[in-house]
Hints:
- The complex is a heterotrimer.
- Chain B is α/β, with parallel strands linked by helices.
- Chain B is built from seven helices and ten strands.
Amino acid sequence: MVNYFLFSFKNLKKRGIRSWLTLLGIFIGITTVIALITLGSGLKAAVNAQFGVSSTQVITVQAGGLAYGAPGSVVVTPLTKQDAEAIEKLSSVNIAIPRNIESGKLEYNDIVAFGYAVSIIEGREKEIYKLLDVETEKGSLLRSGDRGKVMLGYNLMKEETNPFGKEIVPGKKVLVNEQKFEVVGILERQGSFILDNVVWMLDSDLNDLFDYGDDVGLIAVEVKDKDLMDKAKEDIEKLLRKRRDVKVGEEDFEVSTPEAALEQVNSVLNAIQIFIVIIASISILVGAIGIINTMTTSVLERKKEIGTMKAIGARNKHIFFFFFVESGLMGLVGGMIGIIIGTAMGFAGISALNSFLGSTTTPDIDVVLIFFALLGSFIVGAAAGIIPAMRAAKQNPVEALRG
Amino acid sequence: MKKEDKHKSEVINLNAVKKYYYMGDNVVKAVDGINLRVKKGDFIAVMGPSGSGKSTVMNLIGNLDVPTHGDIYLGGENTSYFSESDLAELRGKRVGFIFQQFNLIPNLTVKENVMLPMDFQGVSKQEREEIARELLSKVGLGDRIDFYPNQLSGGQQQRVAIARSLANDPDVILADEPTGNLDTKTGEKVISFLKALNKEGKTVIIVTHDLYVAKHAKVIYWLKDGKVEKKTRKRK
Amino acid sequence: MISTEAVKYSLRNLKQRKARSFFTLLSIFMGITTIFIFISFGLGLYAYIGELSGSSSADKVLIMSKGSGLAGLDTAFGLTKDEVKAVENVPGVFEATGSYFKAAEVEYRDEQIYTLIGSYDPKVPLVMEIFGIQQSEGRMLKPGDEKHILVGYNYQVKDKIFPDALDVNSKINVNDVDFKVVGFLEEIGNPQDDAQVFVTNDFMEEMYDENLSYNWVVAKVDLKNIDEVKEKIEKTLRKERDLEEGKEDFFVQTFDEMIEGYSSALDIVIGFVVLIALISVLVSAVNTANTMITSVIERIKEIGVIKSIGAKNKTILGIFLFESSFLGFVAGVIGVLLGWGLSALGGAILNNVGYGFLQPSFSPWLFVGCIAFATITGAISGVFPAYKASKINPVDALRYE
């Protein structure tokens, strides 16, 4: 009934400071929860972006080992270039590119920094660039025969974002593990902390520096068709099992579809987010306690009103709903304010995150979250008011009128 | 409404009604056996000093309370075993209350106060508004329908209360010390209003300790120690 | 300032409004309990970290790679035996030894897991000394041990790593080499560390025919001049590896410096969580203020009466302040008791699931601090209402309906 809301609203306004204090409690709690959830989602998106999983058709194959350091660095039996060739022959596979990732020293302007260098197989540059969606911001892409040359990730260019105190542009020379290389290109911004700080060079150059021979850090596999993803995974696993002579269930390698790679990270992030939100929810609970308090007082103060209403024909359920709706409204109003401020704070947090991580996450207004938050705050408010409302409804009119 | 019986012409009937309060081993006999028949068109005053049980009698007549012994009939229905909720609905339909302290709902406008009893009976919004306006102009407050009670004088508030009591066109108007919080002049206005209502055919019951007020009624029930001591009729 | 009557009056009031007082208490103590739990675990972690840097680690210096890989596991970095010798020759250095770390596939009765295999020189067991780790069963490695392996604590527990528990003399296979288990390490407290396996440096070199270089090096140095010695080590290594200052691909740290790094990280995490919990305390302060204001309004007449019989404004202020502080105090006590119980329970559970290093630590200051904090919160929330109460005009108050 529309009546209930209007009546409740007027009552809340009248009680002034006490209503506001109660609201304050709920809205602080909801602000915190919303801000943390928004921030958490933003963080997840930013972290996911870091892994630069752009293509939905790339399967990653790695040798089994520990997840320390760059892929392929801490493994028992590494994958080889021959493995990659064999995988490429599979019917469900389009191309299989072996990649090496090594951690090394980059020097420029007499300053040393540590980072990763990745390989480009000569003769297959075009395929690699297409698969990984690589394009230059300045200069040109590496081509076969470009020995002694490198491409740099976006962040390594500008003075503000690189650790060298000076801008690096195509034509300049840098030292990688004491060897001189000429920069031919700067790559477009990927929005990923990892990818934007990487040095690209030809496989033969990287091999000279790190001497890995035919060993391969990971194999990037493009599947012929998105729908063949699962079949391709199975085929690759079967093939590698044979090549490496391992039984089912004892694989010493890992074939991950794009989602699987991120699952582990996301599950950790999720767990953290849930944990933090639970802590923050305690505030909401405390706010709800405030509503219980306020409503109980309200019922006591309005005993005479309740008695009068019963005298003029109000049934128990009418009285119940008056107070029930009033407390629900308190929750709702507190929730609305909380959502607005919480979302604003979440956005602010994400901007800060963006500048810190170099990511380009756009904060999302999660309509579902807002809907549930509104619904939730009304429910919390109403639930807090149930007992006081029941007590109001059960009052004996004679006693109530006595005041 | 379902019973076609001898109680039909009686608006309210109290039949050997007692209200005892048990506190441990003590018994307080607030009302100790009362018979009261209110017929349509009656104008009754219930008089008595404090402690005579007249407040309890008023509560019983208005069905705000249930007796410990005896039966109460409201509009022909035996309400002694009604639940409070059902009683409330019946009460709202058949009895119009006027209180000594006006008891208007402070957060509702005058118009909304008069609309409220009809709301509980499920009357449509349009009808509620129409009737409220009508009643308020009838009591001479047609120009203040959007005021809040705290913006009105005592006499005006009581008039709103009267309008409210008429909202559901009840069988009987029950007034508890209606002039208790008003000065003499305003009080007189209120009483004459009630008299006028009675002339139009409304059954009116006033509970009071003020003989001057009681004298306006056609019949006076004199209460003492929870029982009717005597009954006097006005000669006119 | 506050007489016994006043105190009695306050206490009875609180008792009377049991439901209201209860809910206010509930608000405050929920926040306090949460803060208590997190700080106690924080303290526990600090203690754990502190334990690591006991007396047997203060004089140790670590040399690790500065690459992007995990410190100590970067395969691009390594110190050679000559370099270790050079470090040992630095004045102030008593001993220096290196360790290898590699990925390992450990197989037992047809089950396999991946973990780290490390090695050390039993003649110079500085690594074990640093962490103060002893064996829990069997023995540590001896010089000359071949195909003998020292494993982490969890291997001897059924279903922790392998479904079957291992014993001393059990045979396991690591990276295709068969080993005999000679001993189990003490429980370190986290699943990763308790699953590591160790062999001697010499044998590790045999296992891998490639040229291994040490992944990290520990040196025992003269405690009195530890900082100077550190610098000298840096200089020496720079010369050995032909690097300019500021361009080292390694860093030299005292063990304590490394621990400090962890402490700061811990500070941030704990700080953040406690901040969130503080918000709930904020909300409970709001609730308390609300309760007190309501209390004042209910007792306006009463206050008028008290004032009319001679109570000063100060007295009224004191009474209400006492009430709200007392509420805070009681809430604080309940909060820390509950927090204590929950922390202890949490610690026991964590211990059971293998994360024994996450234990709460209780200091008397934690209890006192939380209770004081709750009391002060109560007091502060009550200031405004108490002030309002004290300023009530007795004449108006007595007339209040």
